[in-house]
Each structure stands twice: as structure tokens, then as C-alpha cells.
């Protein structure tokens, strides 16, 4: 059983409250997801994030195939982190940790995703040329979109 890990860290010149308010609102996921993914929330985004929240949506990740995805927010600590786990969807395992912390001049956000593909060895075979590049593309888009929305982080120079 092969479990993959994707890590991404990004710094933004915003307060931890601004970062938390944006990232913890499920409706904003559409804003930071590429349009071609056909992201559409079906239910569960009608209130601020909380542990136990179930969010259902439709995505079109590859070949125009619409896929229903259900995630549960399993952990949520205000202004610090939250975890979403797939309950139904395209992965055999999807465990996504979102951390935010205040740094000098802004926030640092870290995503750690542990995931497993379905279909055993076949899933492992398509990972390097289909799944991994697609996830990298999605998270690159997300990073660029967050910078477009909030600005580019420039660390303060010490004298």
C-alpha cells in the first residue's frame, strides 16, 4: 500500500485573522480552484467551519468526468489549523492538514496532504504522470491565486 505526501508552504502579507477567515470559509475553495475543475458545492458550506462539518461538492478533475466528493472537517482550531478528510470520492485516502501561523510581516500557511490512490498497482502506475502533476498544478494555481488576492510576501530586512 503506497501512501503519497504532498507538502506546500506559502507566506502571505496578511494577518492570521484574515488568513483564517478566508481559508476556513468553504465557499472560498471555489475561488482558489482552477475553473476547469468545475468545482461546485452541493451542501455543507452554509456556516463557518467546525469539526464534524460535512461538505459535498462536484469536481471534474480529469477527462471531463464529474466526480462527487464528500469531505469531513475532522479537526478545527481557530487561527491555527484544520483537517479535512475525504469520506467519499476519487481517492482511497485523502487527509489534508491546513496549518497557519503568524510570522514577521504576515502568515505562513502549510498544507500537508497524505493520499492513497485506488486501483492498487494501476493507481501507482498513473501517479507520476497523471495524479502528481495534476495536484502540483492545482496547488500552484492556488498559490498564485492567493498572491493575486492578498499580495506577495516580502520579509522585512533587518538592519
UniProtKB/TrEMBL annotation:
Organism domain of life: Bacteria
InterPro entries: START-like_dom_sf (IPR023393)
Listed name of the protein: SRPBCC family protein
Organism annotation: Gelidibacter salicanalis
